Amino acid sequence: MTTEATAPPTAAARPSRLTQLDALESEAIHVMREVAGEFERPVLLFSGGKDSIVMLHLARKAFWPAPVPFTVMHVDTGHNFPEVIDYRDDAVARFGLRLVVASVQDAIDDGRVVERPDGSRNPLQTVPLLDAITAHRFDAVFGGGRRDEEKARAKERMFSLRDEFGQWDPRRQRPELWDLYNGRHKPGEHVRVFPLSNWTELDVWRYIEREEIDLPSIYYTHERDVFLRDGMWLAPGGWGGPRRDEVLERRTVRYRTVGDMSCTGAVESTASTVADVIAEVAVSRLTERGATRADDRASEAAMEDRKREGYF
Amino acid sequence: MTTTTTSTAPSAASVAGAVSASDHAHRDLLRLATAGSVDDGKSTLIGRLLYDTKSVLADQLSAVERATAARGGAEAGTVDLALLTDGLRAEREQGITIDVAYRYFSTARRAFVLADTPGHVQYTRNMVTGASTAELAIVLVDARKGVLEQTRRHATITALLGVPHVVLAVNKMDLVDFDETVFRSIADEFARYADAIGLPDVHAVPLSALAGDNVVDRSDRTPWYDGPTLLEHLEAVPVDRDAHAETFRFPVQVVIRPRTAEHPDYRGYAGRIASGVVRVGDEVTVLPSGKTSTVTGIDTFDGPLDEAHAPQSVTLRLADDVDVARGDVLVPTGAPATVGSDLEGTVCWLAERRSVLGARVLLRVGTRTVRALLREVNARLDIDTQTVEVWDGIDTLHTVDATDTSSDTAPRALTLNAIGRVRLRLAEPVLLDDYATHRRTGGFLLVDPADGTTLAAGMVGPTLLDRLTPTPPPSAADDDWLAGAGI
Lengths: 312, 487
Known about the structure:
The complex is a heterodimer. Chain A has nine helices and eleven strands.
């Protein structure tokens, strides 16, 4: 069956190239709609960090005027910044979302994981994350990971197949061609999906500025009591800091990433608006993970190892 | 890998960090792929692009400095730029690249997504993957060695995947004393080959990735070269597609039906425009059903549009309550479009298990997945010699046990990295766009229904493989026009 031409399309030729941010947005929306079309039970990981906030914003745009068709899940280390939890709860109420909380504290109480001597709970998130994926039978899990973040992530796919143990095997990755994402998986397996793969930290901030997206206040400058450990400004809290030999100081800081309080450092900053932050990030000589994540400093392959075990 | 450079700060010219936020609002995004091996200096070239555009930050650089020192290769204060692109542990240990890695750098004018693909012969599938989304490919040659078998292989894959722009990077010019005649003879030889395989737009740059000549900054050691540096070319190469000259294609991803108090009866079709332009009022046909309707709205979260073009993600509303679902494609009514259930095309085999004639597979094209039967593999492209071996087109279905997916005895099988011409019988008709004219909708995947493995990537219709075929394929012998012409 061939339909024959009767009239060719006519129009004045003019440039039709998207700007970088429009191209990235369109790609991310396309990925989210593919997941909605191909999977039964998708979930969006929502930490209250800027990348997951941008993902949620994109999900609202992708399905408008329908509500976001995904459950959101927060993997709660128990060492949270209160401002971030407030933001999370407000977003859930505002957008009518269904929230699942996977709790590291519960996993410790059940004996599924054991608290580490250094008090950091970031590496402990993998077990409650995988348990929640199994319990809720989630088959697609949106993460805010970006390929520019870290070198093991540079080889990550948009659609990343995980086995029953949540493991990432870089040698088993499916080739990803054009925009044809293969999400087929066996029972028990699931697919991690990274719609922000091709965004850089600056792209995320420029998009936040353009779209006028609200963020938790700790992303902007504020006064805070902090202490210095391993070259990072950490905030005191129930997680165990500061130690006796560590001195609290009042500093003007902000956060570049939001994670477990025990390993997320603040940077000294007076940036009070998105534009200030963009100017600061643009001239920064440190990556956001290098500047603020103790967990990535452990070894040259720290992220690769955690990814293999099923981390975000 | 002994390539080193001093770790002084790159020059301020043309770097992202020096530009204020507002200047970025209008820059576009260029996707490119690099082809070449470590021996050609590919990792060093990418390292140089990242380093000189200030895309490498201090902590990444100090990690590389530590790694350089740990390997004892370089003196203090120098850094092996190739290590910037090191990835997985196995790769570092074996000194090879296993997989496609994606790198990001930008200037005030353009942002770049670079697919860094390994160049070894066994990694054809990675090159095919990287080239599939690339608008530009950098083919790298060592000035001392010139155009090698490997260079032709990379150019062939670039042509096969229809990458519209090519840069021939003649690297290591410092090792041939920046000799113009060396550069010219390599560029001429490559141009002749590019012509033969139909690479449309080739631009050659003499450079030294190690020393930085003509990568970002213009070299004073090539006074005879007045063209742009590599980065200048990447920034300026016109890749604007004229969406108005393309035919509209809109694969439907999901049907949006809110059923909320605010939008009780809303029904829209969400997707990303694969090619062309759509306007409110356009007459469209739903394929494969052939039903027609009119576009009554182009919706986005930010408000309705009168017109939208590729590759925008939008939601279309139609005048009539026609049956439209995921997998359907909206096309302009009256414009040519072929719908069928016999597919001829070229595939690159991507799986460890070989092809089996008669195998039942899944075909993924656009947003549609249909069952398919691999009826015929009738030619294979030898990527090293760029010759096509034609296998007789007799349907050997009956001679092969179709259930034996582990068969090593299949006489004409495609193995990992092989490129061949196939015929597939589809369980239901689909839109069959030629890849040559529809890069987005003419590409397909073959998937194993049992475990979801991606078996092959394919291109509908004639490709480079057909161009290189010395005689008409056997299946053409029964074409009507041949008989009618009395041949």
